[in-house]
Amino acid sequence: MNPQMIFFLVLAVLAIACAVLVLQLKRISHRVVSMAFCFFAIAGLYFLLGAEFIGIIQIIVYAGAVTILFIFGMMMTEHRNITFSAHPRKLHRVLSFVGVGTLLGFMLYGILNMDLPQNGSPRVYEEGTAHEIGLVLYGHYVIAVIGMAFLLTAALIGAIVIARKEAK
Amino acid sequence: MDLLFMAIYAVAVLGGLLGAVTYAILFERKVIGYMQIRTGPNRYGPWGMFQTIADVMKLLMKEDIIPAQADRKIFVLAPVVAFAPAFMVFAVISWSENLYAADLNIGVLYFLGVSSMTMLGVLMGGWSSNNKYSLLGAIRGVSQMISYELPLVLSVLGIVILVGSLNLRDIVFFQQDVGLWFIILQFPAFIIYMISAIAELNRSPFDLPEAESELVSGYHTEYSGFRYAFYMLAEYTYAIAIAAFATTLFFGGWLGPAFLPGIVWFLLKMCLFMFVWFWLRATLPRARVENLMQFCWKVLIPLALLNIVVTAIIKVWMGW
Is domain A1-80 in CATH 1.10.3720.10, yes or no? Predict the structure, then answer.
């Protein structure tokens, strides 16, 4: 077993364990923290795959911004120990089981049928770099990027307008 | 074998860092002491050399107190979460031409992204203490850090545009080729960086999260003993990291006349940055909350954006 495999196993187990803990823990503050660790472990997996840019974006956006957003949401709402009712109805259980099973099936199908490039071919290492992503985003997809920028600006202005009205 | 080497490097950096933090604290007290015409610590060891060690000994031997109403697990975890990212960023710092850990192509992004995680530790500590002063301090700290991260990142972008790379070593090599440090080429960016770095570090004059006249001692009010020591360690580690980052970006990293090795130049430049922060602490009064936020959003961010635009225009115009 090479060191890469060991790190992969550690990070993968960490990510899965933290994801399970998010569902399992009682207090919402504990859940948010375990979610942050889950995001971190996934970022570690990206680094291990050589996709450094995606990994760092995972840390900035998910582990940084999304987690802080969740914590502020938690602070502004009630934080008593709220759990779902202990015995969900049988129909709920069956339905959610079927839903999760279908999702798993689709994902396995996608992963197993994916056309992965051979190990060590130089293309693999060039595709994930910041340089390459920048060229693609501002070359081929430039209209989509600008459209997104407009959408985000509109959302930002909307948020400010709503907040202003409440302050009056 | 590679892995072993990495582990040894990490442990060596950690050891060096602990020593550096010990003497940074002494340095701070001495600098402020002399500025206020007193001698500073002078009882333990020659020139007060063992003062910080004695302080740390005291903190380690103190009783370990966790408030009864605190959220125990998060309370225990928070100092670690605050320290780990501050240490992780040292992976991309290149101490000299040959001495570095990771030659990462996105070093700048890595540094900025990982260092922003310290916020989580601050927020966890303030939240879990179950104390209004802690919570207020944590919220202040986080809102300040989020706001000032924007000008910090934007001020660095000018350099990235000029160099055309996010690699910290490439940035130093570029300064070597041009023969000028970025403090000259990007002077407005340097000023913006320094101001927002001080706010990021929660140091005076922007130490609102720890304003002792209104908030006792901010987000670590409830912490004592070695957990408090851990928070202090995280704070000074982050200060050293930001100083190292500034040295690489604006002061040409390890570059300098050849009579001293590169790493010595690097450390000397870092000490200069640390001195500036201690100097400001001794001279400036604390800013007010609303001034702080207005200054960030209405002055620093527009200036930083303007700097980016001007840099981009110059780069295209000069055809670099």
Answer: no
How would you class B292 by CB atoms within 10 Å of its CB: exposed for 0-12, middle for 13-18, buried for 19 or more? buried
Show Cβ contacts of residue B79 under 8 Å, excluding neighbours closer than 6 positions. B121, B125, B223, B227, B230, B231, B234
Q: How far apart are CA B134 and CA B128, in angstroms?
A: 9
Instruction: Read off the pTM.
Output: 0.83
**Chain B environment of A60 (Cβ under 8 Å):** 109, 112-113, 116
The answer as to whether B185 is a domain residue is yes
In sequence order, the β-bridge partners of residue B100 are: B94
Cα gap A102→B79, rounded to integer Å: 42
Write the residue in A29, A64, A71 that is nearest to B116 by C-beta: A64
**What is d(CA B266, CA B308) in angstroms, rounded to the nearest whole number?**
27
How long a stretch of residues is chain B? 320
A92 has a pLDDT exceeding 90: no
| pLDDT, tens digit (0-9, with 9 covering 90-100), for B53-83 | 888 888 888 888 888 877 788 888 888 888 8
pLDDT of B217 strictly over 90: no
Number of domains in chain B: 1
Residue type, B252: G
Nearest chain A residue to B108 by CA distance is A56
Owner of token pair 């940074």: B24
Q: What is the ipTM of this complex?
A: 0.77
Q: Where exactly are the structural domains of chain A?
A: 1-80, 130-168
Residue B54 lies in a domain: no
CA distance A167 to A9: 50
Dihedral sign for Cα A7, A12, A13, A14, please.
positive
How does the average pLDDT of chain A come out, rounded?
Answer: 82
Check pLDDT > 70 for residue B320. Answer: no
Q: Which two tokens stand for residue B239?
A: 């200060």
**pLDDT surpasses 80 at A166:** no
Residues of A in contact with B139 (CB under 8 A): 75
Which segments within chain A are labelled E, that is strand? none
